[in-house]
């Protein structure tokens, strides 16, 4: 009688992490020419890329004075621009989940990511699994999702179930922002999955950047702030933190508008 034995599948090897400098900008790479994040060498805690700045659009939906009391979470560390900005500039409690330990080490050595402390927690692991942990349910005010592999062809996690798990992380006033980019990705399909998980009336979107990044925002609790309120908050965001929020309002609207 013959017997068979199941063998465990080996996980795909993680890509090599490196960086390059061009002028005053340092960029992170995962074994390819694709830029996975960047940093201004003379301003390491600012956000250099336009689309990454747009990932902060959740600030339009909360009073500026309440920001430091909130919790930010990033799925995918990249060059740690969002993580550093949230902790240093916004003074928020900040959690980042990153599957590749080499990315964390690279950010600490090359991209000025500080060590963990009472306001910073870097978690190494699979975001799809980590966000299902009950300890984080209903605790995240700003969830920023930017999950791409070394080929940057499509989001690594992009299912309705995944977005439903993201929604469960959020507080009642919480928002998720997602970077949608890639040759093989389908923006309408991704938006449909986000809308199914959050409700279409909770979803806003930017126009694509010149590089092809489209940032989509989804609210835990749908709201439609008056234009005057958005303008006031955009001015406050620009004054306090140097983000070009007034320009956002020219290219940002609800998908059902």
From TrEMBL:
Keywords: Polyamine biosynthesis. GO terms for biological process: polyamine biosynthetic process. The keyword ATP-binding does not apply. It comes from the Bacteria. Signal peptide: none annotated. The keyword Transcription does not apply. This is Spermidine synthase. Gene3D superfamilies: Vaccinia Virus protein VP39 (3.40.50.150).
